[in-house]
């Protein structure tokens, strides 16, 4: 089987295999490959541009997130939590995770979290590959909807504004990133993913 040039890899320690198994089918459908490994650091070096999924169930596991962020400054890191109270989520984010994947939530939510972090990584500026561009969280939510092929009307409804306001906002976001429109954004993401592969 030949691998798609834009296929996204999610690298996770083998201990997460059982916790993430309900997500594998949906991830594969979205062209996301889950790579389970015994040596997370070594595998991350081999898969530049991958998203790291790190368990954040205990304090010791949460400390790995900080270590990864220090060792791989440009790496998108997601803390995997089993969290009803919010404590694990807080600890993972406080340790430097870019986002969390809560296994208590439906697998479709995992895809959204992974795509969001991959987009942040792919849109990092070329001169600062680890730095996300100066876009707000809300701007990334708009970009996520663009990647999901949502209409401008849907986006305007979601953000409680007129379509014309959303068109202006999209134009500003595209200008900030340096693309002409939706197609340019998707081409940029595909090009950057290939470059990181």
In words, what does this structure look like?
This protein has a five-stranded parallel sheet with strand order 2-1-3-4-5, with helices on both faces. Helix 4 (59-71) runs parallel beside helix 5, helix 6 (107-122) crosses helix 7 and helix 8 (152-158) crosses helix 9. The model is unreliable at 1-5 and 125-132 (pLDDT under 50). With 197 residues, it is α/β, with parallel strands linked by helices. The protein contains ten helices and five strands.
How helix-rich are the residues, as a percent range? Answer: 40-55%
Distance between the termini: 17 Å
Task: Please describe the biggest sheet, giving its number of strands, its sense, and whether it closes into a barrel.
Answer: 5 strands, parallel
Number of helices: 10
Low-confidence stretches: 1-5, 125-132
Helices and strands, in N-to-C order?
A: EHHEHEHEHEHHHHH
Number of strands: 5
Query: What does the radius of gyration come to?
Result: 17 Å
Describe this structure in a few short sentences.
The protein has 197 residues and is α/β, with parallel strands linked by helices.
Which helices and strands appear, and what pairs or packs with what?
Elements (H helix, E strand, L loop, with lengths): L7 E6 L3 H4 L3 H6 L2 E6 L2 H7 L4 E5 L3 H13 L4 E6 L5 H9 L3 E4 L4 H16 L14 H11 L4 H7 L4 H15 L4 H15 L1
Helix pairs in contact: 4-5, 6-7, 8-9
């Amino acid at each position: 089987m030949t691998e798609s040039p834009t296929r996204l890899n999610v690298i996770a320690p083998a201990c997460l295999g059982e916790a993430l198994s309900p997500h594998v089918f949906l991830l594969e459908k979205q062209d996301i490959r889950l790579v389970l490994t015994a040596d997370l650091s070594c595998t991350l070096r081999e898969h530049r541009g991958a998203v790291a999924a790190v368990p954040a169930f205990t304090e010791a596991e949460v400390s790995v997130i900080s270590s990864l962020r220090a060792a791989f400054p440009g790496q998108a890191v997601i803390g995997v939590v089993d969290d009803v109270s919010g404590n694990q989520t807080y600890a993972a984010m406080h340790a430097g995770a870019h986002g969390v994947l809560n296994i208590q939530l439906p697998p479709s939510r995992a895809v959204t979290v992974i795509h969001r972090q991959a987009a942040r990584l792919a849109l990092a500026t070329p001169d600062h590959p680890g730095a996300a561009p100066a876009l707000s969280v809300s701007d990334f939510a708009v970009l996520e909807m663009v990647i999901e092929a949502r209409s401008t009307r849907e986006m305007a409804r979601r953000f409680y504004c007129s379509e014309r306001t959303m068109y202006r906002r999209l134009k500003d976001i595209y200008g900030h990133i340096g693309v002409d429109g939706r197609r340019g954004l998707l081409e940029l993401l595909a090009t950057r993913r290939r470059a990181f592969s």
